[in-house]
Amino acid sequence: MEKFYGKVGLISAVLLLIWTGLVCAETPNLAPRKIEIKRGYTAEAAKCIECHAEKTPGIIEDWKLGKMGHSGVSCYDCHVVEKDSPMAGQCSGLKGGKLFISPMVSSKTCERCHPTEVAEFQKSAHADLARKAIYDETKAGGKLVALQLVHEGAGFLGTEKGSAINEASRKSGCIVCHGSEVEVGPDSKPINSTWPAGVGTKYPDGSVGTCTVCHTRHQFSVAEARKPEACASCHLGPDHPDIEIYLESKHGQRYLTEGEEWEWDSAPGAWQPGDYNAPTCAVCHMSGIGELETTHNVNERLKWDLMHKRSELRSGIHGDAAKGDKRMRAVCINCHSTSHTDNVRAMLDNSVALYNTYWDGAVKMKKELADKGLLKKDAWRDGFQELMYYLWHHCGRRARQGSAMNGPDYAHWHGFFQVFQVYKDMQDIYEYRIKNNKIEELSTVMSTGPI
Ligand code: HEC
Ligand code: HEC
Ligand code: HEC
Ligand code: HEC
Ligand code: HEC
Ligand code: HEC
Ligand code: HEC
Ligand code: HEC
Fold it and tell me: Model confidence at 191, in pLDDT bands (50, 70, 90)?
């Protein structure tokens, strides 16, 4: 059996390489050297490797361990750019020569050889949406940009908008997960801490997407991306504790006890139950399983929007609720019965409805307070509004995502239990304001309170 797969692997590698050559022929300057299965680089490509083996040995050693390194996809294929690219520069080893390179490598480079993965990725929230969530001043009335620059960046203490200090919190936090708009200096080098950055990064040539957030450079391993750790660097913490929920779930229990023995390296599409006994994040959201094909569009298997203020059925750029529901069920039934799956899915629908009941109540109270002029302009000094943020962004998300991914402690104790507490405190503040027709003098909410 192993031999059989070995052969299939070899044959597909050869086919892929031939096809790769065809796809890449459209961009003549950047076409990889004529790839052969045997090692053999053009003189120019070999020079990068030789010199960098001395200057940056960590990169070469890592690259050598990956499948692309084995197939002879080299520094040259990914880092050489055309002379007129806005990212074109020359490293010390190339100064004065004809070749131009960039340390920035976006999904556009990968697209030359992996067009399907990149097209799927571009449709997902991991691309433009992720970056726009933190850059778009029109989104939510620019409130999030205000959060980053005015509040967290100490704009309210007088730091100048756009200054390095003012941007420090955005740069060290938000962009590392969400992505940045890369700025370049006169020598085409990235500046202002806008690179390296997260998943939805926009590069100076207009291209979008950092593929290395899940398969890190320079191994670009599929096995790595299949493990839950690949998602954990971003999907964690008080506002979306997906890794914590997963590790608490029965699926996580299996992963933690048996994961080391699972077969992580199967060929794409051929990674199926048996190679693993319980799903990881990738199995439910991305990998081919049963009748489902692998996808790099993470919204394809989702029914609900569990991150925004009110949970709605997915539609438009956020996906398709009916198809998403069907596909997610198609994952579960590889290992569970239909009645098991029906029960668990109905539980999610009910949790969403419960959360929405709280949210709708909060919106109603807020509207009445707003109509009566009983809200402070600065929401972060107003107990009612601060609690409303936690209701949605922290405990409300935990309740919904805990329910969706089978983590009862997050669904309940970090979730609905805190949802009702926060809600009751909001009711108290609301009643006080209505009764006295005034806002209490000091915010009754400690900002570290109900996280
Ligand atoms: C399959 C494509 C690919 C290959 C092959 C490749 N790189 Fe990279 N490299 C990347 C990507 C992607 C990044 C991250 C770029 C980003 O975030 O914009 C990167 C980043 C870098 C960086 C800057 C980041 C850092 O940590 O300093 C250097 C330097 C680098 N690569 C050198 C090399 C060298 C030398 C080789 C040859 C052994 C090589 N690369 C091969 C894709 C590749
Ligand atoms: C004679 C040595 C030499 C050769 C040949 C060479 N490089 Fe470099 N390269 C370097 C050195 C030294 C650095 C600087 C590392 C640092 O920033 O400290 C560098 C930096 C880089 C960087 C990072 C640039 C940045 O601004 O972060 C990339 C990417 C890179 N080289 C790619 C290549 C590629 C691709 C080739 C072949 C086409 C190549 N290099 C050939 C020595 C060489
Ligand atoms: C010049 C063509 C080329 C470019 C450019 C390229 N790849 Fe690849 N890639 C390949 C080939 C060929 C293979 C198959 C290697 C094998 O299976 O032996 C591969 C395989 C892979 C795999 C599977 C590795 C595994 O462990 O099975 C990943 C992941 C991957 N590439 C990601 C990327 C990313 C990310 C980029 C852009 C930064 C990129 N590739 C750019 C040709 C390319
Ligand atoms: C640790 C990584 C990480 C950091 C840091 C981070 N986010 Fe997020 N953010 C995420 C993830 C993951 C999601 C998806 C949440 C979900 O599905 O519940 C998300 C979702 C969002 C959303 C909702 C998505 C949308 O398109 O409307 C917004 C808005 C957002 N984040 C803004 C920010 C801002 C602003 C900052 C900095 C003040 C920030 N994030 C910091 C990882 C992060
Ligand atoms: C959110 C995490 C994530 C991101 C971002 C990501 N990948 Fe993947 N990728 C995966 C996972 C998981 C698999 C394994 C799927 C499976 O089990 O077969 C994979 C598999 C692959 C493969 C192997 C062939 C296949 O389709 O299974 C290639 C090639 C690849 N990715 C390229 C890319 C490229 C190019 C990008 C950037 C556009 C990218 N990946 C971004 C998680 C990611
Ligand atoms: C570098 C950070 C990062 C990594 C790593 C990452 N994600 Fe995400 N993910 C995000 C951000 C940011 C969002 C929110 C995007 C938005 O809507 O603005 C997100 C959104 C999502 C969504 C919701 C998609 C939608 O359409 O609303 C899913 C599902 C998801 N990620 C799954 C995964 C999985 C599975 C992995 C690992 C295989 C992973 N992510 C790895 C940052 C990341
Ligand atoms: C057993 C399958 C399963 C596993 C394992 C799993 N998820 Fe999920 N995930 C789901 C389901 C089901 C939903 C809700 C889908 C729906 O809307 O119908 C969901 C929702 C999400 C969302 C919420 C998207 C939104 O609307 O805000 C994110 C983000 C996410 N998962 C990321 C992850 C990450 C990261 C991991 C691993 C740490 C993971 N998931 C593990 C099944 C799974
Ligand atoms: C690769 C197989 C596999 C897939 C796919 C899978 N599960 Fe599981 N699941 C398991 C295993 C194994 C257990 C542990 C059973 C036990 O506790 O005895 C489990 C346990 C559970 C449990 C805990 C309750 C129980 O049965 O004891 C829930 C809930 C659950 N799965 C829901 C889902 C949902 C929903 C999906 C699809 C989104 C899914 N699973 C997909 C293998 C899988």
Answer: very high
- Average pLDDT of the chain is 91
Pocket of ligand 1 (CB under 6 A): 48-49, 52, 56, 59-60, 63, 68, 73-75, 77-79, 103-105, 196, 210, 212, 217-218, 220
In angstroms, rounded to a whole number, what is the distance separating the alpha carbons of residues 52 and 61? 10
Residue at token pair 């609900």: 304
How far away, in angstroms, is 303 Cα from ligand 4 center? Answer: 19
Ligand 7 within 6 A of CB of 255? no
What is the secondary structure of 313-369 as a DSSP string? B--GGG--HHHHHHHHHHHHTTTS-HHHHHHHHHHHHHHHHHHHHHHHHHHHHHHHH
Count of Cβ atoms closer than 10 Å to residue 109 Cβ = 21
Instruction: Note whether 364 and 397 are same-domain residues.
Output: yes
In this structure, are 330 and 368 located in the same domain?
A: no
Cα–Cα distance measured from residue 182 to residue 166, given in angstroms and rounded to the nearest whole number: 17
Q: Identify the CATH number of the domain in which residue 241 sits.
A: 1.20.850.10
Q: Mark whether 255 and 330 lie in a shared domain.
A: yes
Distance 47 CA to ligand 5 centre (A): 29
Q: pLDDT tens-digit profile of 26-79?
A: 343 454 444 333 457 899 999 999 999 999 999 999 999 999 999 999 999 999
Ligand 1 nearest-atom number relative to CA 211 = 12
Coil, helix or strand at residue 257: helix
Same domain? For 154 and 171 the reply is yes
- Quote the pLDDT of residue 5: 37
Cβ atoms of 319 and 299 closer than 8 Å:
yes
Tokens of 86: 């806005």
Q: Provide CB contacts within 8 A for 171, sequence distance 6+.
A: 180, 192, 193, 194
Domain count, the chain: 4
List the one residue out of 180, 25, 193, 182 whose CA is nearest residue 112.
25
**Is 0.85 topped by the overall pTM?**
yes
End position of a domain, from candidates 288, 314, 339:
339
Structural domain of 154: 125-213
Ligand 7 pocket residue status of 246, Cβ below 6 Å? yes
Regarding whether 382 and 319 lie in a shared domain, the answer is: no
Residue 171 domain flag: yes
Residue nearest to atom 31 of ligand 4 (CA): 133
